[in-house]
Structures are given as structure tokens and as C-alpha cells.
Hints:
Layout: H1 2-8, E1 12-15, H2 20-28, H3 33-49, E2 56-72, E3 77-90, H4 97-102, H5 124-134, E4 138-144, E5 148-159
Parallel strand pairs: 1-2
Antiparallel strand pairs: 2-3, 3-5, 4-5
Amino acid sequence: MFKYQATDLGLTLEAEIDCEESLACIREVFGDKRRYLQILANFISNSLKFTDKGGKVTVSILILEQQEIKEDIENNALQKYIKFKMIIKDTGVGISQEGLKNLFVDFNKLEENQQRNTSGTGLGLSICKRIVEQMGGVVKVESTLGVGTEFHIDLRAKTKHIVT
Ligand SMILES: Nc1ncnc2c1ncn2[C@@H]1O[C@H](COP(=O)(O)OP(=O)(O)O)[C@@H](O)[C@H]1O
Ligand SMILES: [Mg+2]
């Protein structure tokens, strides 16, 4: 879906999420794995929207740590956890210092981007941040005007299998 959109816009979308390890990690995460992909999709669509022709959007998922914790002492069972990071990086218009302060505010679309962003609702980022935080995760952003933007989503989730 995004590949099609990116080609249409004359952009390069480089997804490193088809790497076996990353996919296995997402696949094995307990709960609704679609939730993670939906969050990811929100950030990717922003990057595509705010990157000009010839630019590049890179998506990667990294496994940071895997743990086995004895939660159920009676049954001696181990619960497996996985800490992972989703990174969405673009070479787009970037966000100003002022913009970064208001980035996650509900309904907020930055003044600096008004022209290219007539259709947005300004809700995507604030909702995604809230959902990630409810899941115990953190969203971080680094951006330079005219250079690009990088979002990091750090998450920890229960998993069925340790990925080796
Ligand atoms: N990758 C990005 N590069 C530049 N600006 C961005 C990026 N992602 C988000 N923004 C800015 O943050 C605002 C809020 O994003 P979002 O909540 O997803 O709203 P929407 O996409 O509906 O405008 C956007 O309107 C835009 O100004
Ligand atoms: Mg959006």
C-alpha cells in the first residue's frame, strides 16, 4: 500500500521491516499485532506527506532486548518479553523548534506546513502517542527544518517466543 503511494509521489520508501527477525518479533507479540502496524502506518503516512519528490522515507524495527521473567511463581512459568523500537525517518521538510513544542497537541496542524496539508485532521500524532503510552511505550522525535524528521517508538510487549 505504501510502496504504491510512494512511487506515485516519486518518493523512495525503504522498508527494512521485511527483515526476518523484525517480522518475527511483531508476529509473536501478544495481543493485536495490527495495532503496532496501524501506529506505524500513521507515522509513515505523515512522512510521505511531508517529504518532497526525490526524498526518502526509511522504516525499521529493531529488537533491543528480550527477557524471560518468572511471573507465575507457583507454576514456575516464564513470561517472555520483548523490547523493540520502530524508527520512521524521512528526508522531508522537517519541523521547527516551535513546531516540536506543539507537535503532539490534539487537532494541531503546524502553521509551517499548512499549504501541503489541507486534508489532515491534526489528530494522528496525538492519538498515536497516547496509544503508545497506554501500551507502556514512548514516542520521541528529532527534527531539523529542511533536513528531515526521525520518530522513535519504543515499546515493550509480551511475546510467545524468544526470537533467536
Ligand atoms: N514527518 C513529518 N515531517 C514534518 N512535519 C510533520 C511530520 N509528521 C507530523 N508533522 C506535523 O505535525 C502535524 C500533526 O501531525 P498529525 O497529528 O499526524 O496530523 P495530520 O497528519 O492530520 O496533519 C502535521 O500537521 C505536521 O504539521
Ligand atoms: Mg497524520
